[in-house]
Amino acid sequence: MSNNYFEVKLPEYKRAKLDLWQYFDQNQLQSLVGCFEENEFVKSSQNSYELFTNLVCKLMKLNENSKKDQILIDKYFYLVKFCLDREYSLVQISGLLSLMIRTHSVASETAFGNLDQTFGFFKEALLCYAVHRPPFSLNLFQPTEIKQILDYFINAYFKQFKFFKYAFSTGIKAELNFSYTNQPQLSTSEENDALNDLDDSLLRNESRLLNELGLIEENNEHEAPEANSEIKQFVKDYLNQHLTVVKADLLNEEIFTKIGDKKSSAQKRSKSTSSSTKTPTKTPNKKN
Question: What's this model's pTM, rounded to 2 decimal places?
Answer without folding.
Answer: 0.56
